Amino acid sequence: MTRSKQARRTTIYDLASLAGTSASAVSAVLNGNWKKRRISSQLAEKITRLAEEQGYATNMQASLLRREKSHIIGMIVPKYDNRYFGSIVERFEDMARARGLFPIITCTRRDPQLEIEAARTMLSYQVDCLISTGATDPDRITEMCSAAGVRSINLDLPGTLAPSVISDNFEGARELTRKILLNCERQLHEKNPLLFIGGRGSDHNTAERIRGFRQAHSELNVSIGEENILPCGYAPEKAEKALDELVARGVSPAKGMFVNSTISLEGVMRWLRRAGPIDSQDVVIGCFDWDPFAALLGHHIEMVRQNVPAMLEKMFEMIESGQTKPVVVQVPPIMPDEEGLLISREGELKAETAYRNAG
User: Fold this and answer.
1) Where is the chain membrane-spanning (predicted)?
2) Which of 45, 59, 249, 274 has a Cα at 20 to 30 A from 152?
3) Class assignment of domain 12-66?
4) CATH class entry, domain 72-167+308-352
5) pTM of this prediction?
């Protein structure tokens, strides 16, 4: 049997010979720098046409290193199996492409080491900007980006070294707590403190929600103790376990609950379901997160929807304006109104300069 030889790949020198020009001129056209080299549009079109006809493909990594901009924008996210982060990813992709950018996204599972590995890999691909969404250590990622000369922006959780766009967690939690307390008084005819469950007390968002939770109790003259605050983590099984441990200590959980995410809500609903049909139980729940399926859980639930479109709009405004100062912009969440409908507050962006340059 005779083996046919593999066709030789077209090189940049082949294209230069076919176009009747230099290899450097061909390189400038293929890398998008031909205008700076004052190459005519006719020659640029000829080289582009020949490259297509000859099936010429540039090496992505090599060409990126020669460009001033890659037009690639990266994002790391902690979870995919959550409607909030899923909606961030989907809308981010659409908004990036609409601006002529190519989005690269990866999930880091709230693992600090994975976050660093992901950031390092994206920097090797010459991203123009890296968005750290819900990162456990956003400042470390910003330091890596700064060392590489790449911009970074924090989304969802703030940092101290780069611009950040987050939800207004304090005001959102204060209003949600107020609504749960009023619903308990209206539906259950009692005015007792609520139970806060879910999240990590060490992260900014949970700390601000707890602060808003306390403030709402104070405004309505309801005393609240440390035993009513359980920042047990986000996983469903952690919320379920925290409630079991509460009962094991002889404490009856409050009939009104502030649940810190839909992930934690899953564990709360499992725990409640063990006692029978949820609709038959005297419990009022508020969740600082949103999922349309929650409407199937009954009428004793309020949900706050984080305003993802407004957050991403503000983020891209920062990118396009060249914002580098470590400001924190807080976007009000979408709150349920008195009839349980969602009312939009997208236009009400409140910027806070709580995080400034060190010193």
Assistant:
1) none
2) 59
3) mainly alpha
4) alpha beta
5) 0.77
Q: Is 347 exposed, middle or buried (0-12, 13-18, 19+ CB in 10 A)?
A: exposed
Strand 350-352 relative to strand 328-331, pairing? antiparallel
CATH superfamily of the domain spanning 169-303: Response regulator (3.40.50.2300)
Average per-residue pLDDT for the chain: 86
* pLDDT tens per residue across span 55-79: 775 554 455 454 567 899 999 999 9
Report domain extents, the chain.
12-66, 72-167+308-352, 169-303
- Say yes or no: do domains 72-167+308-352 and 169-303 share a fold: yes
Question: What's the rounded Cα separation, in Å, for the pair 199 and 206?
Answer: 6
Hey, what long-range contacts does 178-182 have (CB within 8 A, 24 or more apart)? 178/216, 178/219, 178/220, 179/286, 179/302, 179/336, 180/256, 180/257, 180/258, 180/284, 180/285, 180/286, 180/302, 181/216, 181/217, 181/220, 181/222, 181/256, 182/220
